[in-house]
Amino acid sequence: MTQGLDIALIQTRTPATAAAGLAHVEPLIRQAAAEGARFILTPEGSNFLEQRRGLREEALSDEGEDAAVLGLQALAAELGVWLLIGSAIVRSGVPGDARAANRSLLVDPTGAITARYDKLHVFDVDLAGGETYRESASVRPGDAAKLADTPWGRLGLTICYDVRFPHLHRALAKAGAGMIAVPAAFTRPTGEAHWETLLRARAIETGAFVLAPAQGGRHEDGRQTWGRSLVVDPWGVVIAKADHDEPGVLHARLDLGAVDRVRASIPALSHDRTFDPPQ
């Protein structure tokens, strides 16, 4: 495993169809590769973002037929890079369940999908400003955590709302993840209040790099997302950050040796104790 890794996070404002989503993200990925990134990560909902029911159903397809997924596989092969499609909204493939999967896909430099992860925790909430989200109505949650092998070590896969569940990230770290991806489409109210704090906490707790590409701005369906993509090192230091909502490329160089150094200095992952539940 090499000790240095040049990565790029792609910040997007994804349109409402997969063809438009591909056209939106492709130039940014090309830019990231031309600027030296070997591992490129896109946000949650990188193929399309659309919550209006009829339009969403029109945009939805199977993973193997989605224009953005197929286009991004071909692009990874053309550019010779590792690419994490932070998530694609695709049909779940589960008989009798019409809901979609919110699925993260790791693509290798041949264009092959080497790992899949379906978002475990779905976002059902009523916000103080009157916004209501019921992701469970349209997205079937996954049922398994996922580690992926890369040339630079093991990558833990999570998506957006998963960041609020520390035990998931701890389990990934204890299973060998030195990097954890958190692609997201955070709402503006929750993003402004919690986004950076949660990501830094997950990095500190796990002694892992946290890589968080985000959606940003007002989307075609009216939702507003927070942006501010960022990279946090295993000590909890933000080493790269977008300070805006606009589409763009955020580069970072990871010193992968920092994972072992931090975990040796604070070996909390090996200090778990069993205890009686609270009464």
TrEMBL record:
Pfam family, one: CN_hydrolase
InterPro entries the record matches: C-N_Hydrolase, C-N_Hydrolase_sf, Nit1/2_C-N_Hydrolase, UPF0012_CS
Keyword entries, A-Z: Hydrolase
Protein EC: 3.5.1.128
Gene3D superfamilies, per database record: Carbon-nitrogen hydrolase (3.60.110.10)
Coiled coil ranges: none
PROSITE patterns in the record: CN_HYDROLASE, UPF0012
Family, per entry: Belongs to the carbon-nitrogen hydrolase superfamily. NIT1/NIT2 family.
Record protein name field: Amidohydrolase
Species of provenance: Brevundimonas faecalis
